[in-house]
Amino acid sequence: MKNYNKEIAFGIALLVIFAGLLFWFISTATQSGLSIIIALLIILMGVVTFVLQIVNKQRDLEAGSPAEDEFSKLAKVYAGSRAFIYSMYLWLLIFVFNSAFTKPQTMLGIGILGSALIYGLWLFYFKTTGELYEE
Amino acid sequence: MKNRMKELRARDNITQAQLANIVGVRRETIVFLEKGKYNPSLSLAYAVAQVFKMTIEEVFIFESSDIKKKITH
């Protein structure tokens, strides 16, 4: 059975660094309300995803089922590649409509949040339909 | 790619969860395999065939149309 302690420790370290950088970003510069909300949303999304992953892995370990297998790993790879392509379109749209954003930080925040959401949605699609291949 | 997993599971009276535990995958993977939505790796196909004491070809039915599709695309 795989030991997830190292993975959890690495995840916590990444989250702390990420959250620290975002808080530093919020506190040092004069930000608009929307920028702060987006930054907080990114932190919240990271924390929620991480906690959900730990809970799911623990539940799987207790049930004697592997937390990951060849299908779930492949689903992540497919979701990642699709998300990369769709994120390109998102960034393109963001830059086309950059005049709509008052601050570049807002633009970046929406881009990062959007990319993460796109990945999450594709992962959900592949894991629920199982349709990794195109006929 | 079609397969006889559901039929063979019924024959041997094995649940999807039991089969998943034996071959070391999640139950969802067995569900997608049975539906023919997911093509297993060679090692997983071998493991599944071993559970039913059969060969890979006897469990997984690779039709000639599948080969044609692969060649033409």
Looking at this protein, list some descriptive labels:
heterodimer, A: 135 residues, mainly alpha, 2 domains, 4 helices, 80% helix, 0% strand, B: 73 residues, two-stranded antiparallel sheet, 6 helices, 64% helix, 5% strand, globular
Topology (elements, then pairings):
The complex is a heterodimer of chains A (135) and B (73).
Chain A: H1 5-28, H2 33-63, H3 70-96, H4 104-129
Chain B: E1 2-3, H1 5-12, H2 16-23, H3 27-34, H4 42-51, H5 56-59, E2 60-61, H6 64-72
Helix pairs in contact in B: 2-3
Structure description:
Chain A has 135 residues and is mainly alpha-helical. Chain A has helices at 5-28, 33-63, 70-96, 104-129. Chain A is flat and about 50 Å long. Chain B contains 6 helices and 2 strands; from the N terminus they run E-H-H-H-H-H-E-H. The mean pLDDT of chain B is 87. Chain A binds chain B through residues 60, 64-66, 69-72, 127, 129-133, 135, and chain B through 17, 20-21, 24-29, 31-32, 35, 37-41, 44, 69.
What is the gist of this entry?
Chain A is mostly helical. Chain A is 80% helix and 0% strand.
Oligomer: heterodimer
Order of adjacent strands in the largest pleated sheet of chain B: 1-2
Q: Total domains of chain A, how many?
A: 2
Count of distinct strands of chain A: 0
Task: Bin the strand percentage of chain A.
Answer: under 5%
Separation of the first and last Cα atoms of chain B: 16 Å
Helix/strand/pairing category of chain B = mainly alpha
**H/E series of chain A, N to C?**
HHHH
- Secondary structure class of chain A reads mainly alpha
Report the mean per-residue pLDDT of chain B as an integer.
87
